[in-house]
Specification:
The chain is mainly alpha-helical. 73% of the residues lie in helices and 0% in strands. The N terminus is likely disordered.
């Protein structure tokens, strides 16, 4: 019995220091929807748009880069969570798959906007990889994929224009 009490108290003593403490600021942040989610990516994209419109291209690049990184992280986290719940509760993997698709769309939007800034700065060599990634992520059958491919034509990276069939146009 003593041994059991000793082990229990030892286990409790090890767990307590590692339990997260929710502070008021964190609780307040989650209530205002300022967390790490798709809305925060939208906010970064909007911030970058404002900065680009005002001519502050350096800050716009930073905001778009942050949006790209956040989108990639969210995509990874949503995939991990969806995989953890496969076979347990079908609703959660479906929800995580949907959020993952939305993360990919946000990543493509950030890439398109960042590429536009680089093109504005006459840095097509930096824009090309971003545009290729959009085509790869979204496919040429989507609006964003076609926009990216068209920009690749405009900068001279590719020479064959793509005209999507009307039935295949999605997004």
């Amino acid at each position: 019995m003593r041994r059991l009490l000793l082990l229990s108290s030892l286990a409790i003593g090890l767990v307590i220091p590692f339990t997260p403490v929710v502070c008021f600021a964190q609780a307040n942040a989650s209530q205002t929807n300022d967390g790490f989610n798709l809305s925060s990516v939208d906010a970064l994209l909007a911030k970058g748009d404002r900065e680009a419109a005002s001519g502050n291209l350096t800050e716009a690049v930073k905001s778009y880069d942050k949006a790209r990184n956040a989108s990639r992280s969210l995509l990874s986290f949503y995939r991990d969570l969806g995989g953890a719940f496969r076979g347990l509760d079908a609703r959660i993997p479906r929800d995580m798959d949907q959020k993952g698709r939305e993360s990919i769309e946000k990543l493509a939007q950030a890439n398109l906007r960042l590429a536009a800034v680089y093109r504005r700065q006459n840095q097509s060599e930096v824009a090309v990889p971003l545009l290729v990634e959009v085509v790869k992520l979204m496919t040429p059958s989507t609006v964003d994929g076609r926009k990216a491919y068209q920009q690749l034509v405009e900068v001279g990276f590719v020479s064959t224009p793509y005209a999507a069939p009307a039935a295949a146009a999605t997004n």
